[in-house]
Design a protein that fits this description.
heterodimer; A: mainly alpha; ABC transporter involved in vitamin B12 uptake, BtuC; 2 domains; two-stranded antiparallel ribbon; 15 helices; 6 strands; B: mainly alpha; L-phenylalanine transmembrane transporter activity (chain A); transmembrane (chain A); ABC_transp_permease (chain A); L-isoleucine transmembrane transporter activity (chain A)
Chain lengths: ~375, ~450
C-alpha cells in the first residue's frame, strides 16, 4: 500500500482521503441508524410506510431479538475461540492457514468419538461409538451424551479434542510447513489448502460421510434457569463458561508468562526475536499446540451446542472465522475474539432484517469491506498477539 | 541439449529430447500418454469385447471434456497468478456469474426451474462473459490495494457471496417478479441446450452415427463370432458429447493463442514486470493499477466463458457446482503444470484430469471388477478390525467403496508435495521473464 502512495496516488492528498473516509463512515452510520430505527419501530409494533413499497418497522417480538442476540453471542464465542489460533499462526508463522477449519472438524470428530464411547459404555458397540455413530447402533438419545447425564464424558471429550487436534497440527507442521518455513505466505497458504483437503477427506474416510446427531438433549432445556425466569440451554451455558475460561487463560498466558512474552516478541519481529535468543522453533511448536487445541475444543463445543456434525463442519465455518479475525485485526488475539463476536452477532442478528439466504453473505460482505477499507481491523492496528 | 553433453544418447533420451523441442509436441505427447493409460485401464476393467470400444471412447470423451474445461480455467488463472502475481481464489464465483448470466439471458421464459429472458444464445454467452468481467472490475478496483493473501480471502469471500446469492430463493423470486428472470434459487436453473445438439437430432447426425455402427457378420470374418446383430461401436450420445468437446477444444486453442500473444506483447511484458517487481514497473512510468485491473477483468471474462462451456453445457445450473473446491482444483492443475507458463497450464490440466481426477476412480473400478471382493463393510471399524488377522480384503473393499474421499486425500498430498519439492511444476521453470530479449544463457524452448 505504501508503494502506491509514493507513486500512482500522489494526486490524492490526505484531505481527499479523509473526506472519502468520512463519507464511508457517514454511510455506515446512516445504515446503522436506519436498521436501528427499523428495529425500534418493529418492537413498538408501528409500521411506517417508506419509499418504494418498503416499510419501516412491522412486527418484531422483543423475545426474538433477545434470542438472536444470545445465539449471536454463542456463535461469536465459537468464532472467537477458533479465531485465536488462526490469528496466532498468521502473526507468528506469517501465513493464512486454510486448514484451520479442518482442525476444528478434527477436534469435533475425535472428541465426540471418545465422549460417546465414555457416555455410551455398554450401550453400544465400541467401534460404533468411537467412530461417532457411523453405521447402525443405538440412537444419540439412548447414548445420552449430555452435560447432565454424563459430564465426565463431555470433559474427556474436550481434552481428547484438544490433544488429538494438537497431534494432527504438529504432524502437519513437521511434514508440511517446517520444510518450507522461509518460502513466504502464498506457498504456505497453498500447502495449507492441500492439508485442508487431505485432512477433511481423511475424516470423511474414517468417520463416514453422513451427518449424525451426537448429543443427548434430555433435561438440557431449563425453562426457569436459577430462578431468573429465563429459558436457557445448558449446553450453551457450558459453551459460554468453557470458552470464556479458555479466553481468560489465553490472556494470562500471553501477558504473564515467559512463553507468552516470547510469542508476542516473535509476532512483532521474528529476526529480532531470533537475535535475542528466543528459541523460535519451540515458540512455533507452542503456537501450534495452543492454536490447534483451541480450534479442536471450539469444534467440540460447537457440536455440543448444535447437536449434529458432518465432515464439512469446520470448512464451512472457516470463512466466518477468517471474517472475525480480519475484522478484529489479523494477528491480535483480542481482535480475533472481538471480531468473532461481531461476526457471530451479524450472522444471527441480521436475520431480523434480511432473509436467512443472506445472513452468511452479510458476514462475508462485512469482512470484505473491512479488508478493503480498514485492513488493520476495526480496533485499529494492534498487531501483537 | 548441447552436442557435447549428448554424445551417444539412447533412443529414449532422443525421443524425449525430440518431444521437448516444441510445446505442441509436449502437449500432444501428454494427451497421447493419458489416452493410452485410459485405454489400458478400461480394458483392464472390462476385458476385450465389442463394447470396449464404446467404453474407451466414453472415457476419452470424459477426460477430453474435463481437460478442455480445466485448461480454459488454468489459462485464465495463469493470467492472474502466473503472469501478474494476483492470487485470485474466487474462480468458482466468476464461473458462476458467467453461467447464471448466460442462463438469465438465454433460458426460455417457461423453463421448469429458473426463468430466463429467452434471448439468443450468443447474446447470453457474450453477456455472461461481460458480467464476469464487470464483477471482476468491481472486485479489482479496491482489492488490488491489498496484499496477496488478503486478495485471496477477498476473492474467496466474494465467490461465496455469489454462490449464496445464486442459491437464494428470495432473490430469485424478487428478480423474477421485477425483471422476469430468476436463478431458481437452491433448486437450480434450466439452461439452454448445447448448440451442437441439433446436429444429432437431424438426419446428418443419424448418418454420422451409422458410420460407427458395424454389421456383425462383417466383423465375424475378422474377429470372432458374436451372433447376427448390429453393434454400435460408439453410441450416439458419446458422439454428440464429443462434438461439443471438439467445440471446447477449438475455443481452447483460440484462448491459448490469445493469451500467448498477450504474454509476448508489450502489455504482457508489463504484467510480468508487475509480478517481478511492481515498484520498478511503476518507476518506469507504468500505471500498474490500470494494467492489473485490465488483466483481472480479462481473466474473469475467460473464467466466465470456461464456466459457460463447461457447467453451462450440462443443461442445468446448480449453486453447489460452484463451491470453492472447484477453484482449488484449477489451482492444483495450474501448479502441477507450472504457473507462469501457458503450455504448463495446458499440460497440468491434462495430467490433473487424467491422473488425479479420473484415474483413481478408474483404478477403483478395476479393483472392484477384477478382485472378487466381498461386500464392503459399511463402516471404518468393520474395515480395520480384520486387519488384525492380516485380512486386507475388507479394508480394500471399504477403500474402493469410498474412493472419493481417498481421491481428495491424494489431491491434497500431491498439492503439498508439488509446492514443497517442485514449485515450478512438472515442466520445470518455464516462467517467462519480463524482458523482451532472452537474458538466460542456456537454450530455451520457446
Amino acid at each position: 500500500m505504501a508503494r502506491f502512495q509514493l507513486f500512482s496516488e500522489d494526486s490524492e492528498t490526505p484531505v481527499v482521503d479523509a473526506i472519502r473516509g468520512r463519507v464511508l463512515l457517514t454511510l455506515a452510520l446512516g445504515v446503522a441508524v436506519m436498521l436501528l430505527l427499523d428495529l425500534l419501530a418493529g418492537l413498538a409494533g408501528i409500521e411506517i410506510a417508506e419509499f418504494g413499497g418498503r416499510t419501516l418497522g412491522g412486527e418484531i417480538e422483543l423475545s426474538t431479538v433477545g434470542k438472536r442476540i444470545w445465539t449471536g453471542t454463542i456463535v461469536g464465542l465459537i468464532f472467537g475461540l477458533a479465531g485465536i489460533g488462526l490469528s496466532m499462526t498468521y502473526s507468528i508463522l506469517n501465513f493464512a492457514n486454510f486448514s484451520h477449519g479442518d482442525l476444528f472438524t478434527t477436534g469435533a470428530f475425535t472428541g465426540w468419538g471418545v465422549a460417546l464411547l465414555v457416555a455410551g459404555w455398554g450401550v453400544g458397540d465400541a467401534g460404533y461409538l468411537l467412530l461417532a455413530r457411523s453405521g447402525t447402533g443405538p440412537s444419540s438419545t439412548d447414548i445420552g451424551a449430555s452435560i447432565i447425564a454424563s459430564p465426565l464424558a463431555i470433559l474427556i471429550g474436550v481434552v481428547v479434542a484438544a490433544v488429538a487436534t494438537t497431534g494432527v497440527a504438529l504432524l502437519a507442521d513437521r511434514f508440511v510447513y517446517r520444510p518450507m518455513r522461509d518460502r513466504g505466505g502464498i506457498p504456505l497458504l497453498i500447502a495449507s489448502i492441500g492439508v485442508a483437503l487431505a485432512l477433511r477427506s481423511t475424516v470423511q474416510f474414517v468417520y463416514g460421510p453422513q451427518t449424525r446427531g451426537v448429543t443427548g438433549t434430555e433435561g438440557i432445556e431449563r425453562t426457569d434457569f436459577l430462578g431468573t425466569g429465563l429459558s436457557v440451554d445448558l449446553h450453551q451455558v457450558t459453551l459460554l463458561v468453557v470458552a470464556l475460561g479458555l479466553m481468560i487463560a489465553m490472556h494470562l498466558l500471553l501477558q504473564r508468562t515467559k512463553l507468552g512474552k516470547a510469542m508476542r516478541a516473535m509476532a512483532d519481529n521474528k529476526d529480532l526475536a531470533l537475535v535475542t535468543g528466543i528459541p523460535t522453533e519451540r515458540i512455533v511448536r507452542a503456537t501450534w499446540i495452543l492454536g490447534a487445541s483451541l480450534a479442536g475444543i471450539a469444534g467440540f463445543l460447537y457440536v455440543l451446542e448444535r447437536g449434529t456434525m458432518n465432515y464439512n463442519v469446520g470448512w464451512f465455518l472457516l470463512l466466518f472465522i477468517f471474517a472475525g479475525v480480519i475484522l478484529g485485526g489479523i494477528g491480535s488475539i483480542y481482535g480475533a475474539i472481538a471480531g468473532g463476536l461481531v461476526i457471530g452477532f451479524v450472522h444471527e442478528v441480521s436475520l431480523i432484517w434480511i432473509s436467512s439466504d443472506f445472513n452468511a453473505a452479510a458476514a462475508f460482505l462485512i469482512m470484505i469491506l473491512v479488508l478493503l477499507y480498514r485492513p488493520e481491523g476495526i480496533f485499529g492496528g494492534v498487531t501483537t498477539a | 541439449m548441447t552436442a557435447s553433453e549428448a554424445t551417444q544418447p539412447g533412443l529414449r533420451d532422443r525421443f524425449i529430447g525430440w518431444i521437448e523441442q516444441s510445446d505442441r509436441r509436449i502437449v500432444l505427447a501428454t494427451v497421447a500418454f493419458v489416452y493410452g493409460v485410459f485405454a489400458i485401464l478400461v480394458i483392464l476393467e472390462q476385458g476385450l469385447g465389442l463394447g470396449t470400444v464404446n467404453s474407451i471412447f466414453g472415457a476419452w470423451r470424459t477426460i477430453t471434456f474435463l481437460f478442455a474445461a480445466y485448461a480454459l480455467l488454468t489459462l485464465a488463472l495463469n493470467l492472474h497468478w502466473g503472469y501478474t502475481g494476483m492470487f485470485n481464489i474466487g474462480v468458482a464465483g466468476f464461473m458462476a456469474v458467467g453461467v447464471y448470466t448466460m442462463g438469465l439471458l438465454s433460458t426460455s421464459p417457461d423453463a421448469l426451474s429458473g426463468q430466463g429472458l429467452g434471448l439468443p444464445l450468443p447474446i447470453g454467452i457474450l453477456g455472461g462473459m461481460i458480467a464476469a468481467a464487470l464483477v471482476g472490475l468491481v472486485a479489482a478496483i479496491p482489492a488490488l490495494r491489498v496484499s496477496a493473501d488478503y486478495l485471496a480471502i477477498v476473492t474467496l469471500g466474494l465467490s461465496e457471496i455469489i454462490r449464496l446469492s445464486a442459491g437464494s430463493r428470495t432473490l430469485s423470486n424478487w428478480t423474477t417478479n421485477t425483471f422476469g428472470a430468476g436463478t431458481g434459487g437452491g433448486s437450480g436453473m434450466d439452461l439452454p441446450d448445447r448448440p451442437t445438439d441439433f446436429i444429432f437430432n437431424s438426419s446428418i447426425g443419424e448418418s454420422i452415427a451409422d458410420v460407427f455402427t458395424v454389421d456383425v457378420p462383417r466383423i465375424d470374418m475378422l474377429l470372432f463370432e458374436f451372433g447376427n446383430r448390429e453393434v454400435t461401436l460408439i453410441s450416439s450420445s458419446i458422439l454428440s458429447d464429443f462434438v461439443w468437446t471438439f467445440v471446447m477444444l477449438l475455443v481452447l486453442a483460440g484462448v491459448y493463442w490469445m493469451v500467448r500473444r498477450i504474454g509476448y506483447s508489450p502489455f504482457g511484458r508489463v504484467l510480468k514486470a508487475i509480478r517481478e517487481d511492481e515498484l520498478v514497473a511503476q518507476s518506469l512510468g507504468k500505471d500498474t493499477r490500470r494494467f492489473k485491473i485490465k488483466v483481472f477483468m480479462l481473466g474473469c471474462a475467460l473464467m466466465g466463458l470456461a464456466g459457460i462451456l463447461w457447467q453451462g453445457s450440462q443443461g442445468f445450473a446448480n449453486p453447489n457446482s460452484y463451491r470453492p473446491v472447484v477453484t482449488f482444483y484449477a489451482f492444483i492443475a495450474l501448479i502441477i503444470g507450472g504457473s507462469g507458463s501457458n503450455t504448463g497450464s495446458v499440460v497440468g490440466s491434462i495430467l490433473f484430469v487424467g491422473l488425479l481426477f479420473e484415474g483413481p476412480r478408474q483404478v477403483g473400478a478395476i479393483i472392484s471388477a477384477r478382485l472378487n471382493l466381498a461386500d464392503a463393510p459399511g463402516t471404518f471399524d468393520g474395515a480395520v478390525a480384520p486387519l488384525a488377522q492380516l485380512d486386507v480384503t475388507p479394508f480394500l473393499a471399504y477403500a474402493v467403496d469410498n474412493i472419493a474421499p481417498l481421491q481428495f486425500v491424494l489431491l491434497g498430498v500431491v498439492l503439498i508435495i508439488i509446492i514443497q519439492k517442485r514449485p515450478d511444476g512438472v515442466l520445470g521453470d518455464r516462467t517467462e521473464t519480463a524482458a523482451a530479449i532472452d537474458l538466460h544463457k542456456e537454450e530455451t524452448n520457446e
